[in-house]
Amino acid sequence: MKSLLNLSSFLWLLLSGIPVPLVLVSARGSRVNAAACTKSFTSSPSCLQSRVPSHKRATSHTIPAAVVVPPVLRNLARGSILKCLADLTGGLPLEVWKSSVVLENIRHNNNHRESTHTSPKSSIAILRSLLRDQGLSTLWSGLTPRMIEGLFSGGVLLASKELIHVVLSDYVSPMVLNRVGMSLPPSTIGFLSGAGGGMAQALVMGPTSLVVTACVVASQKEDGEALSALRVAQGVVRERGIRGLYAGAPAVAVRQATNWASRQGFTEWVRPRIPLAGVTGELVAGCIGGVLSAWNTPFEVARIESQSKVMGENTSLGDDGESRSLFATMNDIIQERGVGGLYVGLIPRAAQACYQTLFLVCVPRLLS
User: Fold this and answer.
1) Residue 322 to residues 84, 99, 134, 244, 299, Cα–Cα distance (Å)
2) Given this model, what pLDDT does residue 33 score?
3) Contact at 8 Å (CB) between 364 and 78?
4) CA dihedral sign, ordered 13, 14, 17, 23
5) For residues 164 and 193, what is the distance between their CA atoms, to the nearest angstrom?
């Protein structure tokens, strides 16, 4: 129990940016409560040493009183923890709901190609069907690959996004101000840093998003059995090689770049324009920015279409099973289902965008 409390304290200090205190252990095993020195560490780094009697000090076996975590490492840890928390508490259920809506629309279009009198189920109706037919647990389909993705993609996203933000605001913006007499607006810095972070995140999201989509596809087949993440990955590699894991990767890259450019940029743009301040203002700005970022839903629909096709879903994009370019896929969707087909699942998409913006844009800012 004590170890668990120590671990939770360490993670909280890591997230909050406070210098992480270490317990000072002497050669004779005496301990000092380092937490008492955390507040005074910046002014007196040696406070732990001063609390140990001189005859019990053992300089050769002394652990440093505290470790100041570098910003990049702190953001890597923050991003990983926050992304996993976001997915575990609501992000993954919203992802499964959104993917189910798009897949239902694909199936409906294929099964009623000649009919003009039927329409696919609404997003709310599909959510009710999922809960009624398969239970609440189906909303966490693909949890294992999602957590693995979160450990890497969340850290990569936040570390790269914050690093680009610092470079632009502290170096590029003053340089532009000196040369043209005009600094970069916060919203522009937000759009650029978000785009850079999203592109970096896409490097690790391709395979895991494919596996999650495959698990959703399998869970919705009437006679299909549940697939494990490992089994899905092994099947793709065996049939298509490593490249098969990156089916729909262009759509993932464009989606992530526009995702976080919009979420960060719109939040920065909205923040000074709402009559709220503090935590409430930050959360409201994040919600608005997240909802506005759902404009790029067509890229997400194209991604699901491409990846469901690779996993054997009978889509309308041909029978050869080969990956197609992002815009070719979007063009086929328009021809088959009209422009509205690109905005299927907009409601769960907007809800998911709002939720993730709160965790990975607002919370890091509040912690800083």
Assistant:
1) 32, 21, 31, 9, 18
2) 47
3) yes
4) positive
5) 5
Q: Tell me the pLDDT tens digit for each residue of 259-317.
A: 899 999 999 999 999 988 889 999 999 999 999 999 988 888 887 777 676 555 443 33
DSSP category for residue 117:
S
pLDDT category at 331 given cuts 50, 70, 90 is: confident
Give which of 163, 176, 236, 177 is closest to 206, Cα–Cα. 236
pTM for the whole thing? 0.69
Mean pLDDT, the chain, whole residue set: 74
The string of DSSP letters for 118-146 reads --PPPHHHHHHHHHHHH-GGGGGTTHHHH
DSSP 274: S
3-state secondary structure of 66: strand
Classify the phi-psi angles of 185: left when phi > 0, otherwise alpha if psi is within -120 to 50, otherwise beta.
Answer: beta
For 300, the token pair is 């997400």
Each domain of the chain, given as residue ranges in start order, spans 18-67, 71-367
For residues 246, 252, 256, 257, the Cα torsion angle rounded to the nearest 10 degrees is: 90
CA distances for 285 relative to 96, 107, 260, 274, angstroms: 26, 37, 14, 8
pLDDT value at position 315? 39
What's the CATH architecture for 71-367? Answer: Alpha/alpha barrel (1.50)
Cα dihedral sign, 345-104-89-74: negative
pLDDT greater at residue 2 or residue 189: 189
